[in-house]
Amino acid sequence: MSERKVLNKYYPPDFDPSKIPKLKLPKDRQYVVRLMAPFNMRCKTCGEYIYKGKKFNARKETVQNELYMGLPIFRFYIKCTRCLAEITFKTDPENTDYAMEHGATRNFQAEKLIEEEEKRITQEREEEELNNPMKVLENRTKDSKMEMEVLENLQELKELNQRQAQVDFEGMIDRYRELERQEKEREKEEDERETKEMLDRALVKRLRDSDSDSDSGSEKEEESLQPNKSSTDKPTDILTTDRSTEAQGTSSGGVKRAKVESWERSVGTLGGRGALGSLVVRKKPAATINKPSPVTTAAAAAATATSQTDPKASTAVL
């Protein structure tokens, strides 16, 4: 299979390049090229401004019978973006620039005018020196004098700057190092002070915690020293106790007093003298009654009868 993009083509042995027909194209034919405006211009027809760098589809042709040192000169045709008037300009290889022909005017450019003026002065001087040796000597004397004046002015400016600004670079470096050292010392002192404050706060907190722990331990010891309540007491005995007993119990322990006071605030006291004392009644012990049994009754009746008949026998029975 042959290559799609062939680099080397086949030429047969009987190939004769002179037999290839040549195209007869006109010398002034035009090409369509894409270019940008080489300078700022203004259309003469409508006054539209065309700025440098604007793109156009231009027609390009070679200028006939016009060369510069063997280099051809090209002409370009563009159209105004507003009125479609034709504008032409051509290359200027002598000045490495473009020259406007017709259809627009080139805008003012100060740099170009300055360059042209310098070039004109240089050219006139060269023409004068070419035929006048005394002019050459005069120009050289003027140039040397101008150069000496420029050097003197420059030296005066340097001395003036030195008098006005006495800059000691070594002193500046030393001051900078001193300021840097002081800044480091200040930061170190601040760190130490902050660390000390944090340690002091931690110590105070630890002391407070230890004091609170000791207080709670003493309270627990006091509570443990108080007499424990008998396990035989019933939960409802607190309802039937008197105020004096409650006061005595609460004086012995803070926890019991708090319980009694909270109970009294909620429902009041339930003693014998209180408003709710009649609702609770103490259980009284029942009286024991000895009922005579039938056998004992019969024995007593027999003893009574015997005593009536024989007092001695009744005494013996008893």
From TrEMBL:
Its domain of life reads: Eukaryota
What's the name of the protein? Uncharacterized protein
